[in-house]
């Protein structure tokens, strides 16, 4: 069933809650990836996020739209900023939010993952926010539960809310994503952030190139529709955005570059290499940063060009928008036929 949205949300605090963009249609029950999401759905999330940026900058940050709803953050992999960001997002919207950190040692068997999903499902959450080290695990969970599921990063596969917050950061700075040249640099092979960003940027009409040593270029680079460079100065020539990635040593088998010093020399972003980009090019990094390995502090902390703290700020707003849209869908489905609706 295609989720349908109701009109205004009645506020349990009394009166009609002026939820922004009351009549939007968001045609997804889950947010599992950017793949399969069209430009309208992406724009809907970004537009709604804008209103939450304003709310988060104000004094009273609390709303009651999600009062009575339960959000469970289930992290099978460590995280600080993404988990905190989802937790804040849920709490600012008035939901009850709980965090569950599952030790990696407890997830060796497929049954454990599904058992966990079934156990959580029995507690009637409205949204599960899941991070998992295996690609595809979050989708599997979404097929077994009745609530909405948000992928907070699965293996090397996708990290959709990171790409959405990156898009919001860029859109607010440069007006639009269409026609921009974006260089995604570093450990692209192991990066779910890169994959989600490539999909989103292409969907919104930007041009993407990746800059990485041959050992850190994904095997399927040609199918991603990106230009591949192995030299930073070549790859950064004339770009509007330089998006750096963390070296993901925890996902590497064996050594894929000679040494951290060597890596920084050839692929670390510093003032010198940045000269190849447009003079006002923005610098991005999803965090956590390895300073002195993929990025030099002089550029990471450049208050005019680095938008790294802004990315964190946008993360809360984007996650509020995602929680808001997915829970509206659940409400609309219940309104229509008394059931929770299909898994699309
Ligand atoms: C990213 C992730 O976990 O994929 N970080 C994040 O969401 N804050 C990128 C990374 O870990 O390098």
Question: Taking all residues together, what is the mean pLDDT?
Answer: 88
The largest beta-sheet arranges its strands as 7-6-5-8-9
Principal-axis shape equals globular
Number of strands: 9
Flag low-confidence runs. 1-18, 332-344
Description:
The protein has 344 residues and is an alpha/beta fold. The chain has helices spanning 39-57, 81-92, 110-121, 137-144, 160-174, 192-203, 232-235, 260-267, 271-274, 297-300, 308-337, and strands at 70-75, 96-101, 127-132, 148-154, 181-185, 207-211, 227-229, 241-244, 282-284. The strands form 2 sheets. The chain has a 5-stranded parallel sheet. The protein has a 4-stranded parallel sheet with strand order 2-1-3-4, with helices on both faces. The N and C termini lie close together (8 Å). Residues 1-18 and 332-344 have low confidence and may be disordered.
What can be said about this structure in brief?
The protein is of the alpha/beta class.
Note the topology.
Elements: H1 39-57, E1 70-75, H2 81-92, E2 96-101, H3 110-121, E3 127-132, H4 137-144, E4 148-154, H5 160-174, E5 181-185, H6 192-203, E6 207-211, E7 227-229, H7 232-235, E8 241-244, H8 260-267, H9 271-274, E9 282-284, H10 297-300, H11 308-337
Parallel strand pairs: 1-2, 1-3, 3-4, 5-6, 5-8, 6-7, 8-9
Helix pairs in contact: 1-5, 1-11, 2-11, 3-4, 5-6, 5-11
Task: Give short descriptive properties of this protein.
344 residues; alpha/beta; five-stranded parallel sheet; four-stranded parallel sheet; 9 strands; globular; binds N-carbamoyl-L-aspartate
């Amino acid at each position: 069933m295609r989720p349908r949205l109701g009109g205004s949300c009645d506020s349990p605090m009394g009166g009609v809650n002026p939820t922004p963009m009351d009549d939007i249609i968001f045609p997804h029950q889950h947010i599992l990836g950017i793949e399969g999401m069209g430009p309208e759905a992406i724009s809907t999330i970004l537009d709604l996020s804008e209103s939450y940026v304003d709310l988060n900058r104000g004094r009273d940050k609390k709303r009651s739209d999600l009062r009575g709803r339960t959000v469970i953050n289930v992290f099978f992999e460590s995280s600080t900023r993404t988990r905190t960001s989802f937790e804040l997002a849920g709490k600012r919207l008035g939901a009850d939010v709980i965090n569950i950190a599952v030790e990696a040692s407890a997830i060796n068997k497929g049954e454990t993952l599904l058992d966990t999903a079934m156990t959580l499902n029995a507690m009637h959450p409205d949204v599960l926010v899941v991070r998992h080290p295996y690609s595809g695990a979050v989708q599997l969970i979404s097929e077994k539960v009745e609530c909405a599921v948000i992928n907070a990063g699965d293996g090397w596969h996708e990290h959709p809310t990171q790409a959405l917050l990156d898009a919001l950061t860029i859109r607010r700075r440069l007006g639009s994503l269409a026609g921009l040249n974006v260089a995604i640099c570093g450990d692209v092979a192991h990066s779910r952030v890169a994959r989600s960003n490539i999909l989103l940027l292409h969907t919104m009409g930007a041009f993407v190139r990746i800059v990485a040593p041959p050992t850190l270029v994904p095997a399927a680079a040609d199918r991603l529709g990106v230009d591949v460079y192995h030299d930073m100065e070549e790859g950064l020539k004339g770009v509007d955005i330089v998006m750096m990635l963390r070296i993901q040593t925890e996902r590497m088998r064996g050594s894929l570059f000679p040494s951290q010093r060597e890596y920084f020399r050839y692929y670390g972003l510093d003032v010198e290499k940045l000269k190849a980009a447009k003079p006002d090019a923005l610098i991005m990094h999803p965090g956590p940063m390895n300073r002195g390995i993929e990025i030099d502090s002089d550029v990471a902390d450049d208050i005019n060009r680095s938008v790294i703290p802004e990315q964190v700020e946008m993360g809360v707003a984007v996650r509020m928008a995602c929680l808001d849209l997915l829970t509206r869908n659940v409400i609309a489905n219940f309104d229509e036929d008394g059931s929770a609706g299909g898994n699309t």
